[in-house]
Structures are given as structure tokens and as C-alpha cells.
Structure to design on (647 residues):
């Protein structure tokens, strides 16, 4: 007598959140460890397996930023409207186009709109040029050894310019998850086998879910493989399941057959050969979804109705695939942001401002990135774009604006905003945090140590980077914190002890020995901006040595980061600059050490127990971070992450 198969009812129904937790707990999915090396052209939408550093600087040579003529700035001095100056083409002036290499001996470009051509061999100018006017310096965008992208970064098409510009030909990425789709149903027909759809046999259905899900899987960064259609037979479904797993699948999905009908065999097959974790979830449509485990591989039984299939995919498959890649499920939207500082704009043109965005308290804070048209990293680093209308003169600090997001909103919610003094170790800290937890990141703004403390006071930053020396006590930061953050209790954590000194050209051609040489008159200096700890330190040393700042040629020539100071010296814009050893070492420049200083992270006490801040402190204390910081040169990270003061 033939055995009658009983109709199987659903196991205990689970709500979708609980079902997903059961699924994750049973399989403990983490990033697939396999690494592939791919061509940079094939890297978009792949996830970096390790940090990517620039191999060359961008731009790699001194070039013209405008069309016009290249000249020596010194040859133009004294030119005015009443007393114009004439230059000979081919001698004092050379025609040049945007992007061309600056000719030897020329250090400025005069825009074509700013000159009058007298004849074929002569031009006339009505104003003088200054050194390196309308030029792009070597490394203006980024310099060799600079971090371009951290580990666990999903590469976007916009990032290709940065990668190629940095000399990156191959990128190490995580292997894509492999997903095998098993189509079940005796009534299904494969579209590829049909020559005339009008002659479709009654009772047969063209299978379409696999086409839809394949594209959704690719959008998640995974690789789909669609198996042949399997009829409603438990033995054949079991064989197809084992074939898919043995073929190297990271996840197996069956389409249809997940319900509790007499011809739905999937649940009992999973019970027999693996572990049935969930059969039935409290969502409509999508209730018959199956979650299971076979040979330690994740299994999802997706209902056959197209809408149910789509919902089940988004609820369970999509988050699992992103977990296999060490990343979060992305979303896309616009948000209202608060400007961290003034963002001026010229009337007459709609301006697109690239910004970093982070949540501080109840506000989304936007940190504007550099606006240079040739700076490709302002796109690759941007989390959003603010459009300033053509009839607006800009946005003032504290004003709200709408920003179009370029990244997952969850990334912004998990962003730590660090504003203050520039330090290279922040890049390493950001990467190590992404390696430890792919969801937390750092957005930083370089405005100087004092600017960082002011940002904390205004509530536009989570953390301030500071190294402000008090000449009277010899202590770092304490006096300034008490002065500028009177009503805000803070915890001060040490990040590193670092060496400050003079950055000079390779081989020390000008035989610089110390700060006293800056009074010689034949050396040009590049300074840091007012309010930076390095500027305060330099002023302190000048006062200590009895040197008037007016005696330093270039005292008012300012840059905003240590790397920009080093680039200025490398390009010959200045002969000497004050900065950290790591910046000099990165560009193969010489360095004269002056003193060791303390670089701290100032954090409001109310934020110290925040999970993101706790992760930052944990990573700063880790041996991996400390070893990488030591490798920079000029750093002592022995006390990194240690609580130094509670003020």
C-alpha cells in the first residue's frame, strides 16, 4: 500500500528580527577570508581586504593650473595698470596650457585673461605675479604613502580616479560570496528553452524569480549561479542541494517549495540533511520562508510568489550577504546637516560642496572638504554633497542645509567627528577601527588645536585633537582646556608622543642647523596656521630664543597640515618648514629634531562611555595600532589610549 504523505504545518512562527538573529547565531557569519587581486579597472563595488596607500603623489609634477604664460614671478614685480610691464615670448614668458609641466626656471602662471598681447613676440601685464601662482604643486591632492582607502571599504566608480592617480594597478579585495540558486517546481519552464511563448503548455509557468534575485545578489556584491530547474521530488531536491554545496557555494537558496503544501518538500529535506532553524516568519507576503544550515553553509528557502521572494530576499539574504563581506546593509537618502564652519560661495553659480558628515548629538554635522577642481579625493572621501544655489553667498557656521548622501546613512550615524590638529596617526586609527568594526569610521577636519576645542564647545565635534603647549607650566593642553571649555568636563587621552622639528630638503643643501638659521635672510620658511599647536610651539621657541617673527622670511606663509608643509619644502616653495618627522620621512626629506611633544585626544566626559568612543580608545590601546605608529618614525605610542587627565 502506497504511503500517504501528510501535509506538514509550519513550525513555530518567528518574527523577522528574531528569525534573523537565530540565523546569524547558528552560522556566526563573518567576512570571507579569501583574498583576490584584481585590476583597478575591475575593482568598483569590491571590498578592500587591506588598506590602500598611494604609490605616487598626485599630481606627480609641478604643472599649470590655468591657460596662459609661464614666467618668473620675480620678472613681473612692479607691474601696475599705470605702469604695465612687457615680457618677451620665448624668453621671459612661455605659452602654457592647463596641466602642462612647468618649464624649468618658471614659477608662476599668468592667466590669459590677465595679459595683453602686443605682438607675436610680446605680452603686457598690469599686475605682478607671486611665486607658484596658478600652479599645481607636487602632491597637492595626495602624496606617496598617504592612505587612500581603509580596509573594508567598498570601492565606488568615483574612487577609480584616486586609485589610478595614486599609481595603484592591482587591488587586493575580498572574494565575492558565491550564491547558488536552485529553482524547484514541476510546473516551471526555463525561459531560455522557449522558442515560442505563445505555445506555452497549459499549467506551465516561465520561471522568473531567479533572474530578479540574480541581479539583487549582484547588487549586494555577490556572484549568483542559477542551477537547472528541479521538479517537485524530495530526492532530486536533496541531490541538487548537495551539488550546490560541493561546488563551493557560500549560500544556497531554493526558489519555491518552501510552503507547507503536499508538493513542498524543502523543509523536510533540510530537516533530514541539516538543521531547520526557522520555518515560517510573521511577514506578509513572505510567511513561508525557510532558514536552515546544511554542512555549515547557510540555506534560505524563498517562497515562489515574486513579491514574497523579493521581501524574503531583503529581510534575510541581503543582510547575510553583506555580513559575509564584512559590511553593513546600505541605504541611500538625503539628510539635513549643520555646517561646522562658514562655507562661503560666489554669486552667479550653483556650487556643489563635498562634505564629510557625522552625527554629533541630535545634529548631522557637515565638514566641508577642499574645493579644488583637480582634487579627486574630495569625491572619494565625501559622504555627501551640499548644493549652494547660484543666488546664495554661502552657508554660515551653524546653518542647516540639505545634503545628498553618497554613502550608507548608517555609516554617518557610526561616524566619530574629530576636529582639531592634524596628525598622521588619525589615518591609522581610522583604518584600524574599520578593521575591528566595519561600521565605525572617523571623519576629521583640520582646523588647528584651538579650533578643535572651539568645535567641542559648539557641539560640532565628538573629539578634539590637540597639542597646545603652555609655556608657563610646560604642560600640554590643560591650561587651554580650562580657558576654552570652562563648563564642559572632559577626559584627555594620550594618542602619541611625537617629534617636532625642521623639515628641510634632502641633503640639507642650505646647511640648516636650527631655528636660528631662519634669521639668515637667504632661507624661506613655511608656517602652520594660527591656532595650530605647531604654530604656538614655533612662536614659543622664537620667544625663547629672542627672535622677532618679522625676522623670519615666510612667517606668514601658512599651511593647514604637516603633509602640506612637507610638500611645500619638497616643491621648493619653501626651504624650511616646521612639522613632524613622519611627514618628512614620507616624502624622503631631511629632518632636524627640536623637541618631543604630547598629542592628545580631548573628549567630553558625557561621550566617553559611548560605544563608538570606547572602540576608538580600545583600538588606540591595541598593539597593532602602536606597531603601525612606530613604523611612521618620530612617534612613541607607548601611552597611546591612556587616560591622562580628567578636567
Amino acid at each position: 500500500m502506497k504511503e500517504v504523505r501528510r501535509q506538514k504545518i509550519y513550525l513555530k512562527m518567528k518574527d523577522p528580527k528574531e528569525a534573523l538573529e537565530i540565523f546569524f547565531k547558528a552560522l556566526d557569519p563573518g567576512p570571507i577570508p579569501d583574498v583576490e587581486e584584481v585590476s583597478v579597472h575591475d575593482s568598483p563595488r569590491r571590498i578592500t581586504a587591506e588598506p590602500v596607500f598611494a604609490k605616487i603623489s598626485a599630481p606627480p609634477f609641478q604643472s599649470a593650473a590655468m591657460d596662459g604664460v609661464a614666467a618668473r614671478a620675480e620678472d613681473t614685480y612692479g607691474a601696475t595698470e599705470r605702469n604695465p610691464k612687457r615680457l618677451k615670448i620665448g624668453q621671459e614668458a612661455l605659452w602654457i596650457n592647463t596641466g602642462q609641466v612647468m618649464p624649468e626656471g618658471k614659477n608662476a602662471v599668468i592667466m590669459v585673461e590677465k595679459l595683453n598681447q602686443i605682438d607675436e613676440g610680446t605680452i603686457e601685464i598690469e599686475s605682478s605675479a607671486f611665486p607658484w601662482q596658478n600652479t599645481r604643486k607636487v602632491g597637492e591632492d595626495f602624496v606617496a604613502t598617504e592612505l587612500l582607502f581603509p580596509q573594508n571599504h567598498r570601492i565606488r566608480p568615483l574612487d577609480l580616479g584616486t586609485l589610478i592617480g595614486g599609481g595603484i594597478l592591482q587591488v587586493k579585495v575580498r572574494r565575492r560570496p558565491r550564491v547558488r540558486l536552485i529553482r524547484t517546481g514541476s510546473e516551471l519552464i526555463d525561459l531560455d528553452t522557449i522558442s515560442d511563448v505563445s505555445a506555452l503548455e497549459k499549467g506551465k509557468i516561465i520561471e522568473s524569480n531567479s533572474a530578479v534575485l540574480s541581479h539583487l545578489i549582484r547588487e549586494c556584491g555577490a556572484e549568483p549561479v542559477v542551477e537547472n530547474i528541479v521538479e517537485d521530488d524530495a530526492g532530486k531536491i536533496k541531490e541538487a542541494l548537495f551539488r550546490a554545496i560541493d561546488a563551493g557555494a557560500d549560500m544556497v537558496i531554493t526558489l519555491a517549495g518552501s510552503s507547507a503544501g503536499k508538493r513542498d518538500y524543502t523543509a523536510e529535506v533540510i530537516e533530514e540533511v541539516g538543521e531547520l532553524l526557522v520555518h515560517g516568519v510573521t511577514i506578509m507576503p513572505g510567511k513561508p520562508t525557510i532558514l536552515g544550515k546544511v554542512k555549515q553553509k547557510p540555506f534560505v528557502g524563498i517562497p515562489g510568489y515574486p513579491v514574497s521572494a523579493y521581501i524574503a530576499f531583503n529581510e534575510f539574504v541581503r543582510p547575510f550577504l553583506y555580513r559575509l563581506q564584512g559590511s553593513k546593509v546600505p541605504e541611500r537618502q538625503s539628510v539635513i546637516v549643520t555646517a561646522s564652519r562658514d562655507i562661503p560661495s560666489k554669486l552667479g553659480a550653483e556650487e556643489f560642496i563635498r562634505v564629510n558628515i557625522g552625527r554629533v548629538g541630535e545634529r548631522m554635522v557637515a565638514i566641508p572638504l577642499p574645493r579644488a577642481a583637480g582634487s579627486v579625493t574630495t569625491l572619494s572621501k565625501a559622504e555627501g554633497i551640499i548644493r549652494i544655489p547660484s543666488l546664495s553667498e554661502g552657508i554660515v557656521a551653524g546653518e542647516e542645509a540639505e545634503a545628498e548622501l553618497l554613502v550608507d546613512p548608517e555609516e554617518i550615524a557610526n561616524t566619530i567627528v574629530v576636529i582639531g590638529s592634524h596628525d598622521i596617526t588619525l589615518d591609522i586609527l581610522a583604518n584600524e577601527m574599520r578593521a575591528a568594526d566595519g561600521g565605525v569610521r572617523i571623519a576629521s577636519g583640520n582646523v588647528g588645536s584651538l579650533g578643535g576645542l572651539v568645535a567641542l564647545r559648539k557641539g560640532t565635534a565628538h573629539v578634539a585633537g590637540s597639542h597646545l603647549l603652555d609655556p608657563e607650566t610646560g604642560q600640554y593642553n590643560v591650561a587651554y582646556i580650562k580657558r576654552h571649555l570652562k563648563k564642559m568636563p572632559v577626559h584627555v587621552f594620550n594618542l602619541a608622543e611625537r617629534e617636532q622639528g625642521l623639515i628641510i630638503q634632502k641633503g640639507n643643501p642650505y646647511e640648516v642647523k636650527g631655528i636660528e638659521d631662519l634669521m639668515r635672510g637667504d632661507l624661506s620658511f613655511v608656517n602652520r596656521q594660527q591656532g595650530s599647536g605647531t604654530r604656538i610651539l614655533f612662536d614659543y621657541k622664537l620667544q625663547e630664543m629672542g627672535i622677532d617673527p618679522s625676522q623670519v622670511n615666510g612667517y606668514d606663509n601658512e599651511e593647514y597640515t604637516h603633509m602640506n608643509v612637507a610638500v611645500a619644502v619638497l616643491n621648493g616653495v619653501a626651504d624650511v618648514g616646521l612639522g613632524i618627522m613622519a611627514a618628512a620621512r614620507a616624502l624622503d626629506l631631511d629632518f632636524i629634531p627640536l623637541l618631543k611633544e604630547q598629542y592628545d585626544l580631548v573628549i567630553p566626559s558625557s561621550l566617553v562611555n559611548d560605544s563608538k568612543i570606547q572602540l576608538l580608545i580600545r583600538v588606540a590601546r591595541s598593539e597593532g595600532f602602536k606597531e603601525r605608529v612606530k613604523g611612521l618614525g618620530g612617534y612613541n605610542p607607548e601611552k597611546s589610549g591612556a587616560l591622562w587627565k580628567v578636567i
